Amino acid sequence: MPGRRLAAFDFDGTISRRDTLVPFLARACGTAALARALRQVGPLAVRARTGRLDAELHHRDASKEALLRALMAGREATWLEREGARYAASLDRRLRPEMVEQVRWHRASGHELVLVSASLGAYLRPFARDHGFDHVIAVELEVGESGHLTGAMVGPNVRGPEKAVRLRSWLDGDEPEILWAYGNSSGDRELLELADVPVWVAGRQRATTAPPSGASGRALPVAP
Fewest beta carbons less than 10 Å away: which of 40, 149, 180, 211? Predict the structure, then answer.
């Protein structure tokens, strides 16, 4: 009996053409609220980027944590789920056609599909259901006893080494016979290093350029 065959995909810049988190925050919270939050987070982002924070966080993680807290703390968790589902329905126009075909090839081949993303599970879960994914590993927000968001992330940001940590935790020792992994940035390096078939998704459709220095993988296409 053949073993487990699994394809793990980053989302932003890999399946989608570009970032989806900031557009979601603008749509859900309003552009004025997002602009205020960005101004509020700005000084912290500068300190983080220049290594002047006590916490051992990557500057992107620190800035993201502060931005989410500023925009989400106190909102109802049910509101986030509604906004996530509404946003997920609009994502098809943001997708890379060649990656949509790659997902379809894996699905038609009977492979398991998992998203491993630093974007929010609130909109990736409904997206995944609609596109035949089996599981989502993404950023989740903490819900307090009152059913309101605290603004904190549940666990570390899902980027860099954390992507590999979360995927291994989900596999729980049940290693697949073959693992494909798709990514487009340095934040996907550790995920790609786990794979039997690491695929670097370059910026142009059906690109054949090599990944940048320090990134692992090869360029599309890989489906026969």
Answer: 40
In angstroms, the CA 179 to CA 195 distance is 5
Which residues make beta-bridge pairs with 141?
A: 153
For the domain spanning 5-219, the CATH number is: 3.40.50.1000
Beta-bridged to residue 112, according to DSSP, are 6
Which pTM does this prediction carry? 0.85
Written as one letter, the residue type at 145 is E
In contact, 191 and 171? CB cutoff 8 Å: no
Find out whether 153 and 139 touch, Cβ atoms under 8 Å.
Answer: yes
pLDDT tens string 155-194: 999 999 999 999 999 999 899 999 999 999 989 999 999 9
User: For residue 50, what pLDDT is reported?
Assistant: 38
Residue-by-residue DSSP string for the chain: ----EEEEE--TTTTBSS--HHHHHHHHH-HHHHHHHHHHHHHHHHHHHTT--SS---HHHHHHHHHHHHHHTTSBHHHHHHHHHHHHTTGGGGB-HHHHHHHHHHHHTT-EEEEEEEEEHHHHHHHHHHTT-SEEEEE-EEE-TTSBEEEEESSS-SSTHHHHHHHHHHHTT---SEEEEEE-SGGGHHHHHH-SEEEE--SSTT--PPPPTT---EESP---
